[in-house]
Amino acid sequence: MTDAPFLPLKPLPMKNRVSVIFLEYGLIDVKDGAFVLIDKTGVRTHIPVGSVACVMLEPGTRVSHAAIKLAAAVGTLLVWVGEAGVRLYSTGQPGGARSDRLLYQARLALDDGLRLKVVRKMYELRFGEPAPLKRSVQQLRGIEGARVRKTYELLAKRYRVKWQRRNYDPNKWEAGDVANRCLSAATACLYGITEAAVLAAGYAPSVGFIHWGKALSFVYDIADIFKFETVVPLAFKIAAREPSQPDREVRVACRDAFRENKILAKIIPTIDEVLKAGEIKPPQMPSESVPPAIPAAKSLGEAGHRSK
């Protein structure tokens, strides 16, 4: 009897995945072909890595080469985070910007007129109404900031949470008030899955339109579109209960909310919709360019997923 032919792994579409999981205190490895977390007693916890968009690795975790290779093969983003998931140290990209999409994104960001069109679309999607006419990006940012501050105040009043302003010190996490700690934990979850989606779509997380100069500028731009319909009300609701472990409760609630709202099915189409507002087409390869000597294999995953 001959062995069955090997079938290459086919990554699940981002829209069909579980949003995010957090792992801590253990060795992450591959055993018997499975992605597992092994604790100090030798107990294995199997992780369905191929059906997860983003795995947050908290302090106390170690990762083997085999585990990182498997995560890359199935297109799952690994993110090394600090306590409670609010400090981001590094990410293991399962893909990344395609040259055609990166050039398209960069052209939209560098042209003031095109950038304004994209920002206006972000404003419209975020607030459910067209942006005011004849406003610059800076003016729209000012209007946005005022509306965001007012929204925080209204949510705090609705859930009867003591609120002063959005403020926290990542170096003094425990010193922050409960509301700010809940908000930070919630937005960290949202940023993680948004970065996974941006990379899967083939764009660069750092090339933003409203945010600028950060490694995750575009991630913040896209996440802000969803923030106030998902994680922010949830954070205030949990803060109102004054839980003893706010970050843990927020993460569990975010996971459930992401599933209920099917947010992963919305992020990549929203990215495309926002960029199309610039009303230009992605660039074609110049006629004088030299194509690759060995054509890349057809990707089995999302646009940004790296083929072998």
Task: Give a structural overview.
- By secondary structure, the chain is an alpha/beta fold.
- The strands form two sheets. Strands 1-5-7-8 form a four-stranded mixed sheet.
- It has two domains: 14-92, Ribosomal Protein L15, Chain: K, domain 2, CATH 3.100.10; 99-276, Up-down Bundle (Four Helix Bundle (Hemerythrin (Met), subunit A)), CATH 1.20.120.920.
- 43% of the residues lie in helices and 13% in strands.
- The protein has nine helices and eight strands.
- Helix 3 packs antiparallel against helix 9 and helix 4 (137-159) packs parallel to helix 7 (231-239).
- The longest helix has 23 residues, at 137-159.
Structural class: alpha/beta
How widely separated are the two ends?
A: 29 Å
Quote the average pLDDT: 87
Lateral strand order in the biggest sheet: 1-5-7-8
At the first level of CATH, the class of the largest domain is Mainly Alpha
Question: Helix tally?
Answer: 9
By DSSP, the count of extended strands is 8
- Catalogue the unreliable spans: none
| Computed Rg | 21 Å
Beta-strand content estimate: 5-15%
Number of domains: 2
Question: How much helical structure, as a percent, in the residues?
Answer: 40-55%
Major β-sheet profile: 4 strands, mixed
CATH superfamily of the largest domain, by name, is: CRISPR-associated endonuclease Cas1, C-terminal domain
Taken from the alpha-carbon principal axes, the silhouette is flat
The CATH topology of the largest domain comes to: Four Helix Bundle (Hemerythrin (Met), subunit A)
Question: Could you spell the SSE succession in H and E letters?
Answer: EEEEEEHEEHHHHHHHH
CATH architecture classification name of the largest domain: Up-down Bundle
